[in-house]
Design brief:
The protein is of the alpha/beta class. It has 13 helices and 16 strands. It folds into 2 domains: 2-182, Alpha-Beta Complex (DHBP synthase), CATH 3.90.870.10; 206-353, 3-Layer(aba) Sandwich (Rossmann fold), CATH 3.40.50.2300.
């Protein structure tokens, strides 16, 4: 059964009845579509496991914010108050008095910032066990019609339009500092800004750094090449791009020479233009000049929290730029590298700190 969103908002009781009857519903959220069942009903959760075709691992629970403390031991309340409701899944320690299907010591909780979901949670009362709308291991289904076509066993689909988004960010708050378990809509640096210190990244994650200049032949590939010598590629990925770059060109000869002086190589570098996909990929963006920063903001204003002028990173100075050595002699390229080097070392140390052993 497919029901339009505006009708669903008027039919909460009808949708709740499907849930009470152990049914599975597909619902839009502030990120992607989710499959939901009554989270307190063992048989309903088992049905969801079968539709999802995955092992018996716990689902995320949607619930009213006012009842979180009933089901979990709340910690890092500052983060919860700021990001919930929103595209952040928080992992908390389950209260010993609570028994939920597939839940062991920890419980994942999420409250999407979506009018329909908030109204449903308020009207239904009990928490919902929710997972992404897809077969385990397959891409998320962005369209309600795709859900109807490809997922058998779903009793009702709420049509909220086509949803293209990253999933929610997953953050384990049972650890100090918190541990990021999955990247998503909420950037790492946004969480750290609220928390007031660095978070840790899970062992399967990498921290992505993007350097940006104009043509992507001199400064940004130099920064990329030198930075690769300072970080462990097991936990850090590095790219560079240009705001006015033509794709496929080689790095400047002197840029290659300078990077080799630092023990790196950009011999295989090929220029690429800055785009939205690269901005989304990056956890930290470092621009050479303010005009590059402005271009990034024009492309994605929400990237502000993770975008800095390279020379401003962790400094009190403002608008300090790396001069463009293009068309000049080797000494100009060497001076640019020398100017960048202290910041590159600081960034490398900060990233390494996010991967040190987490403590309770």
């Amino acid at each position: 059964m497919l029901i339009k969103l505006n009708e669903a908002l008027k039919s909460i009781d009808r949708i709740a009845q499907v849930l009470h009857s152990k049914g599975i519903i597909a619902i839009p959220t502030d990120t992607i579509y989710g499959l939901a069942v009554d989270g307190t009903d063992v048989m309903a959760v088992e049905k969801l496991v079968n539709v999802k075709r995955r092992e018996d691992k716990p689902f995320t629970f949607f619930m009213k914010k006012s009842v979180i403390e009933k089901f979990a031991v709340v910690t890092k309340k500052k983060i919860i108050d700021f990001f919930v409701p929103g595209p952040l899944t928080i992992i908390l320690r389950r209260r010993s008095s609570v028994d939920l299907p597939l839940v062991a010591e920890k419980i994942g909780i999420r409250i999407p910032h979506h009018d329909f979901v908030l109204k449903l949670l308020d009207g239904y009362g009990d928490p919902l066990a929710v997972t992404s709308a897809n077969i385990s291991g397959k891409p998320h289904l962005a369209s309600p019609y795709d859900i109807v076509e490809h997922l058998t066993g779903v009793d009702l689909v709420v049509d909220g339009g086509v949803l293209y988004s990253e999933p929610s960010t997953v953050l384990d708050l049972t650890m100090t500092p918190p541990v990021l378990m999955r990247k998503g809509v909420v950037p790492i640096l946004a969480i750290e800004k609220v928390y007031g210190r660095k978070v840790r990244l899970g062992t399967l994650l990498k921290f992505n750094v993007l350097f940006v200049c104009s043509g992507n032949t001199c400064r940004s590939p130099m920064a990329e090449g030198i930075f690769r010598t300072l970080v462990n590629r097991r936990y850090c990925e590095v790219q560079s791009a240009g705001t006015i770059a033509m794709g496929g060109l080689m790095a400047a000869h002197y840029a290659k020479q300078v990077v080799s002086e630092y023990g790196g190589s950009i011999d295989h570098h090929r220029t690429k233009p800055l785009d939205r996909e690269l901005i989304d990929w990056a956890d930290l963006i470092l621009a050479m000049e303010y005009k590059h920063y402005e271009t990034i903001m024009e492309m994605d204003r929400e990237a502000a929290v993770k975008t800095f002028l390279l020379m401003e990173y962790r400094r009190k100075t403002k608008y300090t730029e790396v001069p463009d050595p293009v068309g000049r002699d080797l000494a100009a390229y060497q001076r640019a590298a020398i100017k960048m080097m202290p910041t590159l070392k600081n960034v490398a140390r900060d990233i390494e700190e996010r991967f040190r052993r987490t403590h309770r």
